[in-house]
Amino acid sequence: PWSDYPSNPPNRCFKNFSAKFGIQIHPYDDTMIEASYTAGYKVGGWSTRLQNPTSVAPQFDEEKAKTYELGFKSTLLDNRLRLNIAMFKTDYSNIQLLFQRGTNPVIENAGTADIKGIEADLTAKLSDNLSLTMSAGYLDAKMTNGHGATSPERGHLGQGAGGEPARVGAQKEG
Hints:
The protein is mainly beta. The chain is built from no helices and eleven strands.
């Protein structure tokens, strides 16, 4: 397909300092508890993948995120059992999403969103040559406040966001 790039792209400048703070506590030699807070940032810009001619590139502003995480990691029973669990929550403002405008894919700020979830994995060494692994996760991703008539509806963040994936596997050595 034919592409047209605006001849005078916008001149935009974004500055940000984002920090991460965390703590790890080892109540026992085989156990760790961790917590963290992260401020995230994605720069703004403009869309240039345009199929229809346009004189002005569609612009979008920066996205910001605040993430909170609490986790537990352990190796138990003489290193025969490993259990890891993590819970997280991310609050987005000005979330950047891809929209189709006619034949043009453009990035736009869609509003605010919350993503929260939990992940767990377990590895058990059943014998000297047989291990069992299990993992599961839950993700709840929702728009909490949309901008404009074309943002995702409240409570819906799109395909691929959400659900409860789980896996079980076994490994035989030797």
